[in-house]
């Protein structure tokens, strides 16, 4: 379905002093592309790994997602160095509900980056985008993502079989605006 109106891209990054969430830029694409081929990432995502053709159109697709109100493709970066450490995205189901998805790059896993980024984006989405609910879907076997949802105080609301190859049981979590 998607949002009914465009979203203004972030002009100011979201930060907690450790993690920064910001608009994607051309210089992020090599790191994003490399991470898209990581076996652990491939295990949980059904997206096609980024090749040269996808990289060449990536920024157009990022801008189009914001312009059409379908999604908010963002980069997670180290707050000090600005080095990209992952990606995070809201995909809109309608004007008040979105699904959040994220991936931390292999060299940066296990440092609490994902929960910090999810909390930053959720706070922004509730206060600035007017969302009333954010959903997070994680494979039951993906203990890292399940821990992120729980750490960020998302509540389990459902489970279902995934449509991805390998058939995982997906847990659906929700966080509602207070």
From TrEMBL:
E.C. code: 2.3.-.-
Transmembrane segments: none
Keyword Acyltransferase appears in the UniProt entry: yes
Gene3D superfamilies (UniProt xref): 3.40.630.30
Acyltransferase as UniProt keyword: yes
Example of a GO MF term: acyltransferase activity
Keywords in alphabetical order: Acyltransferase, Transferase
Superkingdom to which the source organism belongs: Bacteria
InterPro entries: Acyl_CoA_acyltransferase (IPR016181), GNAT_dom (IPR000182), N-acetyltransferase (IPR051531)
Domain N-acetyltransferase: 5-178
Protein name as annotated: GNAT family N-acetyltransferase
Species this protein is from: Streptomyces milbemycinicus
Taxonomic classification: Bacteria, Bacillati, Actinomycetota, Actinomycetes, Kitasatosporales
């Amino acid at each position: 379905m998607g949002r009914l109106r465009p979203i203004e891209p972030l002009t100011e990054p979201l930060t907690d002093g450790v993690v920064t969430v910001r608009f994607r830029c051309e210089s992020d694409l090599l790191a994003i592309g490399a991470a898209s081929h990581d076996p652990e990432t491939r295990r949980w995502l059904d997206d096609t790994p980024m090749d040269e053709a996808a990289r060449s159109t990536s920024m157009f697709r990022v801008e189009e997602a914001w312009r059409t109100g379908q999604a908010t493709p963002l980069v997670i970066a180290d707050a000090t160095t600005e080095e990209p450490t992952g990606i995070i995205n809201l995909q809109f189901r309608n004007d008040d509900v979105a699904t959040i998805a994220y991936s931390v790059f292999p060299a940066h896993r296990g440092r609490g980056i994902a929960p910090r980024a999810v909390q930053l984006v959720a706070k922004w989405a509730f206060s600035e985008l007017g969302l009333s609910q954010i959903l997070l879907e994680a494979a039951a076997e993906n203990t890292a993502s399940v821990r992120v949802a729980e750490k960020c105080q998302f509540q389990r609301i459902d489970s279902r079989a995934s449509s991805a190859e390998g058939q995982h049981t997906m847990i659906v979590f929700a966080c509602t605006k207070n």
